[in-house]
Amino acid sequence: MLPKEEWTRTRVGLGRDSRPFDWDATFGRAARRVVDLGCGNGRYLIHSGLLRRELDHLGIELVPPALRLGSLRAGQRGLTNVKFAWGDANEFICERAVPASIDEVHLYHPQPYYEESKLDRRQLTPRTLLAIWRALRPDGVFVFQTDNPAYMSYARRCVSMLFAWGERFDPWPDAPEGRTLREMNARAQGLTIFRSESRRLEIDEARAVELAGGMGEPSFDANKPGFESRGPRRAPRGGRSKRHRPR
Ligand SMILES: C[S@@+](CC[C@H](N)C(=O)[O-])C[C@H]1O[C@@H](n2cnc3c(N)ncnc32)[C@H](O)[C@@H]1O
Which of 47, 94, 173, 205 is the most exposed place for a label (fewest CB within 10 A)? Predict the structure, then answer.
């Protein structure tokens, strides 16, 4: 950790009205761009930002405490190429990402959601996949990782329509112990980690729209043992969880 006077400010706002996100103004330079959709505590972004100073990294996260932790840790390392924004990553990629403007999109361990009532919160959908495909530059890369086998089956089928699907079975060489906190926790529980790194296919927009139209929504059963995902809805114990706003 650096002395406090060398810490950097790493929190940024996305702005109002779903306007396009201005990377160059935010980072003060024009560089290759990496975005992490649902970055949690920012472990991957900080690690990548330290290793790849020439790339700009943006993390989008809905839960303020996780975001604050990531932002603080990046700032304490004096990073200027890693920023964190509170917001809906789906909205970011669908509404704020300029076509062909990003080099890498990462999505690590999106929540599978088990309750029927929450299936519409799943992050990987035909709409977001098409938006990721659009936002990426030619040759851009989409990294998807999960410890949920049903989520991976859905990803395998859908991502491979718009991307040259690449699956890897070993830990990432840059982070053998795990790229993200969820990866490390899942491995500690003995869960299999499914990793993919897929390159954008060069197809035309109309074809991409048509392919996305045939994917089907992510209505798969995430199959948590002992969890009745298709049964009648029950109120969660302790009441509904609050949607947080950042401070
Ligand atoms: C299981 S955690 C994984 C966090 C991190 N990617 C990791 O692998 O450790 C899923 C994260 O996605 C965030 N999330 C879920 N939906 C989101 C959305 N629409 N926009 C931004 N973040 C979202 C959650 O708040 C949570 O931090």
Answer: 173
